[in-house]
Specification:
Length: 765
């Protein structure tokens, strides 16, 4: 059945699994699924937007009757990295032999997109661990699709298995890596994992999901709008074939899988870049589900390898020839996602409550079960817009296209009363031994709502057979950042009792924040943005002796002598003179300093931290953390190991009408910019036009609001809001957001504002 948008989607297994009163008993958010042994593996991230609504879990349904046969809950400390970030994306189920008792033999691999890691679950010994490697971290924070660039903080995106090795790709990235399964089962640390990892394939541009069949790995070329295959057992340069290329139909291939039951290479193209750039048009076909004949692909691969068309391959890569001899069959098309609702009232309620928004609901993964059902994941990247994160494609069609049926049913999704018992957020899924492995990251948007978990459903009857919870310290890296995305299950032998023998793995991706620091003797402050090679210096601070800088998409602070910069060194010379100053927990949007101390933001924690860069130890440091949302200040004194919250009426917003570069908008924000001069603490509200000060010694006494009001002094009224403050010597520097300028205020008997001469230093990397 079709609607105005295309074939209608029927929630899988039914509506009861989605958006019910017991949300955590259903499905919350599914990005990808996997089918194995006539079972669909549904990885529910448990997240809606940035929040964890429920525990991440893997649901396994039997496709014979769509009953849940197993639920594997994923503890938060495994589903997220050490800093608490993670998004479970893709489940991959490995069954070593036949499907007999596969639930006791399978190995499930789950990718964590945000936390940049891999969760491995071995059902034979019922063990689960988190594996991280430097190769799981992308080298860029920008992605490109059809030569349209946009920011994408990615990580390990997809996994497949060939023989005894796990292959994975990071997005963004131009390499496919491999590592022995036996090495992963030992739960290696980062150093050991790095040693065991090898580069398997160099790819022309970013790739979405990868697949495998025979001796070959299949992947996409995001800029070339093409699908390629590489025989990993042939020499490089003689082993790659372009299987299909279409500038219209193959824009952004997010899902790619080999189905042995149907002998098809199946995929999903979704024009993701249009959503990312805000240019999607719901009147156009945006989503396509396609199939390619695996037998023809193998024939094409064998013929090309035998003829050694290495030169032809290079020519094809550069000219993007359209005809490659393998038919691309588009089975389903959507303008936007459309669900099989229980009734019209349910749909209207979902629209009114913003739990359903076609502009925020885009497809991420697709997999085909042995019974012919196609499973679709629609991750919850925002805190609203996606009513069911995992669904099957129905024969009915609505305005947007084929209707989606929430899986297993509506009761598993968006159940507000018991969300963590259902499916929260699923990126990728995996099918093995006729069970579907659902990796639920437990995140909604950027918030960890529930514990990550792996749910295993028996596809025979769609019953949950096992739930594996993933501890947060395994789901995230040491900084607590992670996003479980893709599960992969390995079953050593036959599918008999595979649940007790499987090995489970999932990957992780991290969000980075910007941080920049500098020492005393400030000479110049200037905001600079450089986009070369997709890298940015967002904010740098210039000293008479040294320049300290940070990369926007990085967590390190570097420095270089000013006299070296004035010599205009080339890249090689500059590299020699640049020193690493410190590594940070996250990126920061703004910084400030005084004397030997710097203060910088932590976007993840919504805090401002302080550090004495001239000392190795920070035991006696005081950390000031601004709360822009609730207009307060958190003061931590590490010398006394004490912490308190200070509030004042002067920290509240006073003018919410903002203007930057002629653009007017409303923004409500409390204290957001701070600096220190002598023994005074200076601050300004984001939505305000005043600079205040208070004695640091008074802050360390933890005054109540009444005392803080009395001890606070007005220093300066401004012509517009200021985003950041900094100080050096006896001067305070602040920005004028309306005039796009930097002003200097000298401290004397009376504060005096003067023009500050400055030279613009252009930094390009």
């Amino acid at each position: 059945m079709k609607g105005p948008g295309g074939p209608l989607l029927r929630p899988y297994p039914n509506w009861s699994w989605h958006n019910s009163n017991h949300m955590c008993d259903g499905m919350v958010n599914v990005l990808r699924v996997n089918i194995r042994c006539n079972h669909i593996f549904v990885l529910d991230s448990g997240k809606i937007g940035p929040d964890y609504i429920c525990n991440p879990k893997l649901l396994i349904f039997n496709l014979k009757d769509d009953t849940l046969v197993k639920t594997i809950y994923i503890p938060f400390d495994i589903a997220n990295n050490a800093t608490g970030f993670g998004l479970l994306l893709e489940p991959f189920v490995y069954v070593p032999k036949k499907c007999k008792q596969f639930l006791h033999k399978m190995i499930v691999f789950m990718t964590d997109l945000q936390g940049k890691g891999l969760v491995v679950y071995d059902s034979s010994v019922k063990s689960m661990c988190r594996v991280e490697s430097d190769y799981m971290i992308p080298t860029s924070n920008f992605s490109s699709i059809a030569n349209q660039k946009f920011r994408f903080d990615g990580g390990i995106f997809s996994t497949v298995i060939l023989y005894d090795e796990l292959y994975y790709v990071t997005t963004p990235g131009t390499k496919i890596y491999k590592i022995k399964i036996k090495s992963l089962l030992k739960c290696p640390n980062i150093k050991e994992a790095n040693k065991k990892t090898k580069v398997a394939i160099k790819i022309p541009s970013n790739s979405g999901q990868i697949a495998s069949a025979g001796h070959s790995i299949f992947y996409s070329d995001a800029d070339g709008n093409a699908i390629l295959g590489t025989n990993v057992f042939q020499k490089s340069g003689k082993n790659t074939v372009i299987l299909a290329q279409d500038d219209k139909k193959l824009q952004s291939i997010s899902s790619l899988k080999a189905s042995y039951h149907w002998n098809k290479l199946i995929g999903l193209s979704d024009r993701y870049h249009r959503y990312a750039l805000g240019t999607v048009n719901l009147n156009e076909v945006n989503i396509r589900y396609f199939e390619m004949d695996l037998a023809k692909i193998r024939k094409k691969m064998d013929a090309t390898v035998k003829m050694k068309y290495s030169l032809c391959i290079l020519i094809i890569l550069s000219t993007a020839i359209v005809s490659f001899g393998v038919e691309l069959n588009v089975v389903h098309e959507w303008k936007y996602c459309e669900y099989e609702w229980k009734n019209q009232q349910q749909k209207e309620n979902a629209i009114n409550s913003k739990s359903y928004d076609p502009y925020l609901c885009f497809f991420f993964d697709a997999i085909k079960a042995d019974d012919g059902r196609v499973f679709i994941s629609t991750p919850k990247y925002f805190d609203h817009g996606v009513p069911a994160s995992l669904a099957t494609v129905t024969n009915a069609t609505g305005p947007g296209g084929p209707l989606l049926r929430p899986y297993p049913d509506w009761s598993w999704h968006n159940n507000t009363s018991c969300m963590c018992d259902g499916i929260v957020n699923v990126h990728r899924i995996y099918i093995k031994c006729n069970h579907i492995f659902v990796l639920d990251s437990g995140e909604v948007g950027l918030k960890q709502i529930c514990n990550p978990k792996l749910l295993i459903f028996d596809l025979k009857d769609d019953t949950l057979v096992k739930t594996i919870y993933i501890p947060l310290d395994m789901a995230t890296d040491e900084k607590g950042i992670g996003l479980l995305i893709a599960p992969f299950t390995y079953v050593p032998g036959e599918c008999t009792q595979f649940l007790d023998k499987m090995i489970f793995n999932h990957s992780n991706i991290t969000y980075y924040m910007l941080t920049t620091i500098y020492k005393s003797e400030l000479f110049l402050a200037k905001i600079v943005i450089s986009c070369r090679n997709f890298r940015k210096i967002f904010l740098y601070l210039f000293y008479i002796l040294e320049l300290y800088y940070s990369i926007a998409a990085g967590k390190e602070i570097y420095k270089i002598k000013l006299d070296r910069l004035l010599e205009c060194p080339n890249k090689e010379e500059a590299n020699k003179h640049i020193e690493l100053v410190t590594k940070l927990q996250s990126q920061s949007v703004y910084i400030t300093s005084t004397e030997h101390s710097i203060f910088y933001g932590n976007n993840i924690g919504m805090a401002i931290l302080g550090k004495n860069v001239s000392k190795k130890s920070v035991n006696k440091n005081t950390v000031f953390m601004t709360d822009a949302g609730d207009s307060g200040l958190v003061v931590y004194n590490s010398f006394t190991n004490s912490m308190c919250r200070v509030e004042s009426d002067y920290m509240k917003p006073t003018d919410t009408s903002c203007s930057i570069a002629g653009e007017n908008f409303t923004y409500v924000g409390g204290i957001g910019s701070i600096t220190v001069l002598d023994d005074d603490f200076y601050f300004a509200a984001i939505s305000g036009k005043e600079i205040y000060k208070i004695k640091i010694k008074n802050l360390l006494k933890y005054p109540n609001k009444e005392k803080a009001n009395k001890q606070t002094q007005l220093i300066k009224k401004l012509s517009s809001q200021t985003i950041t403050l900094t100080s050096v010597g006896q001067s305070i520097f602040y920005s004028d957001s309306r005039a796009m300028s930097i002003l200097r205020m000298k401290k004397s008997y009376k504060y005096e504002t003067v023009r500050y001469p400055y030279v613009i230093l252009y930094v390009s990397i």
